[in-house]
Amino acid sequence: MDTGDTAWLMTSAALVLAMTAPGLALFYGGMVRTKSVLNMMMMSYGALGLISVLWVMFGYSMAFGNDIFHGLVGSPTEFFGLKGLIGTGTGDDLGVATHLVGTIPAPVFVGFQAVFAVITVALISGAIADRAKFGAWMTFAAIWGTIVYFPVAHWVFAFDGVTAGPDSKGGWIANQLKAIDFAGGTAVHINAGAAGLALAFVLGKRLGWPKEPIRPHNLTLVMIGAGLLWFGWFGFNAGSAVAANGTAGVAWINTFVATGAAMLGWLLVEKIRDGHSTSLGAASGVVAGLVGITPSCSSVNPVGAIILGFVTAVACALAVGLKFRFGFDDSLDVVGVHLVGGLVGTLLVGFLATDVAPAGVNGLFYGGGVDQLWRQAVGAGAVLVYSFVLAYIIGTIIDKTMGFRLDEESESMGIDSVVHAETAYDLTPVGGGGFRPSVGSASAARSDSEVTA
């Protein structure tokens, strides 16, 4: 066990956790209308609570247990409830982990990967903002996480002979295809983006979209959320080195500079296309750059990272308009940013990778031909198709059984008050009337004097 590696990965896990709550919750929450902000944030928090439990029970085992079927899924019972992974020594060896992943205790690695699973599921929610039942969302999150994310994490992140013992077998993308996805361009962003697209088709358009303008209600929250995402993403990417070493340093600097270039790229597109650069554009460019550099931060040099970030942001800035052309209501541009950004970042590895970077592979522009490019394309395409098809089937079944979408009256009134019996902002004049929560709600449990005050 290496204490420096262990400390860095625990820190990285905490950084990635902050990306979901409060980072993504604020980013998404600020982009919806006032009457939907609490529900939008609750979808992130709900994913956090739900996936954390499923991950410990069987998700980690499905992702990182010994492969049981042609590189497609790990054994769900091998580490069920983390059995066999949490032992420590006694006496002179008090506190020393008895099961390691590389140089770190297995529970630390479990926790680090858990927050990846959480944010992947939470990302999907942005595509169905303003109109999804919370119970239906939680049901979808549990099923999709189990049969889509956990197996796909096995495909991409489970390397032979690492997490389940020296003779263990891992996933097909990591070991047979050998596509490069350092921190989750396929497993996280293409995966979530494809699922978001599928659910946008299942739930249909919001009331009034696209004829009525549906603007972000609080751009200050959006900017704070984007800043927290950028901050936490250093744990996401540099932490994926699973060590405090040179690879982590390269991933850190590439993440930093690609994101800066991406923000500039998005702002430039806005200036040329619309005549002005916006704060929402800056925040969106930041996220697009972070998405693009995620799969490639170990395989490009800093100049390549700048090019990659800029190109990814330009592609995403143009792609967010596709929903109007094709008529699917992706509320918060999960498709335009995460699916497109994940695809561009994953494919550009095949062009910009250089063997001076830690991954040690040359792309097309460095004399490597198309060998790595086709591998990247196959990996990206496989995850996209698998996630889209399964998400569409799961979403359709939920919609036909328990109902996925709110009725029109409830959607018009506002999902916060109807579903959660709360409002994000108390706009009632002092001494006046206004919304009164139903009996049994958290607010109703307070005394009348407190409510009046």
Automatic annotation (TrEMBL):
Q: Which residues does the UniProt record annotate as the domain Ammonium transporter AmtB-like?
A: 7-425
User: Which compartments is it annotated to reside in?
Assistant: Cell membrane; Membrane
This protein's membrane topology, according to the annotation, is: Multi-pass membrane protein
Q: Give the transmembrane region(s).
A: 6-30, 42-63, 108-129, 136-159, 179-204, 216-236, 248-268, 280-297, 303-322, 334-353, 373-395
Pfam families given in the database record:
Ammonium_transp
What UniProt keywords apply to this chain's record, in alphabetical order?
Ammonia transport, Membrane, Transmembrane, Transmembrane helix, Transport
User: Where is it mostly found?
Assistant: membrane
The secretion signal range is: none
Name the family the entry cites: Belongs to the ammonia transporter channel (TC 1.A.11.2) family.
Q: Which PANTHER family does the record associate with it? A: AMMONIUM TRANSPORTER MEP2
Q: What is this protein called?
A: Ammonium transporter
